[in-house]
Specification:
The chain has 2 helices and no strands. With 73 residues, it is mainly α.
């Protein structure tokens, strides 16, 4: 117990792991939707979702780099 009578605080958690999971989920979701839309003939929407998936790949790589470096993020 601390001097104020409360239990000790939990250590702060990094949001980088959550960001990794969300980026991975977004890649799968947007990539899959882009493929389905391309097969259905909606080329413009497929390209938009493919570009979003590409942006998420870049984000995932950057967050993984920061985690390897040891950032607390």
């Amino acid at each position: 117990m601390d001097e104020d009578g409360l239990p000790p605080r939990a250590p702060p958690r990094s949001a980088l792991t959550l960001r990794l999971w969300l980026a991975g989920f977004g890649i799968l979701l947007n990539g899959g939707a882009a493929v389905l839309l391309a097969r259905a003939g909606y080329a413009f929407l497929a390209v938009v979702l493919a570009l979003l998936a590409l942006g998420l790949v870049v984000d995932l790589a950057w967050v993984a780099h920061r985690k390897r470096r040891g950032d607390l993020g």
